[in-house]
């Protein structure tokens, strides 16, 4: 009986410790494991997705589009998906993020994304890519995507989709 009291007091101590510290601690109650769960973090990531389409008119070989970052959130980009088509030649794309530098100016960072040729469908050459990433964009800035194609023959398009989450700055 004395051993039972010692185990019971130890179990109560673990329960009280877990509840008062707010830590996630497995607590044993008979054979059932119980956990004290802290409240949800209000600054945890909120899902974010945005897209842009860059259309090429005949004769154009360079074109840009941008995605605005909300003024009250920082964006963490985890996935970038691209899809493009052009009548002739090859395509490439880069995007630019901006951040303040130490001298009070702006630091532009260019990220080059690799497109893979998918084949010819109809009369167009198709390209695609999906990149896992970890890019940060500051509140109130924009992400500028610039698409290039090696030939200005006919129409062309590049679609960009970014996915990740928003954080409070």
Low-confidence stretches: 4-30
Helix content: 10-25%
Q: Within the largest sheet, what's the order of strands?
A: 3-11-5-9-8
Rg over C-alpha atoms, rounded to the nearest angstrom: 26 Å
Largest sheet: 5 strands, antiparallel
Query: Ends: how far apart?
Result: 57 Å
Shape: elongated
Percent of sequence in beta strands: over 45%
The DSSP helix count reads 1
> Mean of the pLDDT scores?
79
Which structural class best describes the helix and strand composition?
Answer: mainly beta
In total, the number of strands is 11
Sketch the topology as an H/E string, one letter per element.
HEEEEEEEEEEE
What does this entry look like structurally?
This protein is mostly beta strands. Helix content is 12%, strand content 57%. It is built from 1 helix and 11 strands, in the order αβββββββββββ. The strands form 3 sheets. The chain has a 5-stranded antiparallel β-sheet, with no helix packed on it. It has a 4-stranded antiparallel β-sheet with strand order 4-10-6-7, with no helix packed on it. Strand 6 (91-100) and strand 7 (106-113) form a beta hairpin. The longest helix is centred in the N-terminal third of the chain and has 20 residues, at 2-21. 15% of the residues are buried. Mean pLDDT is 79; it is low at 4-30.
